[in-house]
From TrEMBL:
Residues 13-24 have a biased composition (Basic and acidic residues). Residues 1-28 are annotated as: Disordered. It comes from Petrolisthes cinctipes. Residues 1-12 have a biased composition (Polar residues). It comes from the Eukaryota. This is Uncharacterized protein.
Length: 285
């Protein structure tokens, strides 16, 4: 009798898991189909937006019990949405598509696990670059509080996509302006200021791009900024640049930048060790 009860219990458990497995399979299929549309060679911008929109519409009908099943798809859609909304083609997109995406994101935000993603995206749907334009592009001289307020009003992930989008669009001067604010906030956090936490990956990405663009725009400033780095931080930066596998135009002169950085670090180290003998090198430290 006990064996019969145990068998019945196992059968009930399998039946209970069946809807969960079915939901997981459904979202996995949707994920694969949308990813295929987004990565297909030659696909238009409008088609990519439509693919992402269809994904959010699937999630709009999600119930709270499905949250563990939808997270991978939601994160995937969020990252693609950021990329598409911040691209230059977004303003020219049909207003009905933007409205439809905004309404769908509002519906998705009712699901607790989706709220942070939707709350980040919703303001961008109506005005992707307004805050950055008014804060940075039209106001070159920010004080520390303004810089912190800008980063706090966004997220590091959004700022990172902004920078990458500007570089991909070859608007490197504006990308450099945003990176200056990023580096400033990174340094302010190291000084104990209340700046949002960033990941090591974000830190390295911002620092690497900052120095590469500075190497392109102002070699003298590149040397000056490199001298401010702690020696170990400078060595880590050089190692990352040398090991970089990215073939993009942005990194074309990474080895030249690394070589110049090494020279700065060597001079700085030698002077620090033998300053009493090489006092005449003071202008370089």
């Amino acid at each position: 009798m006990a064996a019969s009860d145990q068998g019945g219990s196992q059968s009930d458990s399998k039946n209970d898991d069946s809807p969960t497995r079915e939901t997981s399979k459904q979202f996995s299929t949707i994920h694969q189909e949308i990813e295929s549309q987004l990565t297909r060679p030659g696909v238009s911008y409008e088609t990519r937006v439509s693919a992402v929109l269809s994904g959010w519409e699937h999630l709009a009908g999600t119930v709270e019990e499905d949250v563990s099943q939808v997270q991978p798809l939601a994160t995937f859609l969020y990252r693609w949405s950021l990329r598409l909304i911040l691209q230059g083609e977004w303003p020219a997109l049909a207003q009905i598509v933007k409205t439809r995406l905004g309404v769908t994101l509002q519906r998705c935000s009712r699901v607790v696990v989706l709220q942070p993603l939707c709350r980040t995206l919703l303001p961008l749907v109506s005005d992707p670059w307004g805050l950055t334009k008014s804060t940075i592009f039209l106001n070159k001289e920010l004080d520390d509080n303004e810089a912190i307020a800008y980063i706090s009003g966004e997220t590091w992930e959004v700022v990172r996509v902004r920078v990458d989008t500007l570089i991909e669009s070859r608007i490197e001067k504006y990308a450099f302006d945003v990176l200056k604010v990023c580096i400033r906030c990174i340094r302010l956090r190291s000084e104990g200021m209340d700046v949002p936490l960033y990941t090591d990956e974000d830190h390295n990405h911002f620092v690497d791009l900052y120095f590469m663009l500075m190497f392109k725009f102002d070699r003298q400033e590149f040397v000056s900024e490199f001298k401010k780095l702690d020696v170990m931080e400078g060595v880590s930066l050089v190692r990352r640049l040398v090991a970089k596998q990215d073939k993009g135009k942005m990194w074309r002169h990474r080895l030249k930048a690394s070589e110049m950085g090494i020279q700065v670090l060597l001079i700085k180290t030698i002077v620090q060790m033998y300053s009493h003998d090489f006092w005449y090198l003071n202008p370089f430290i």
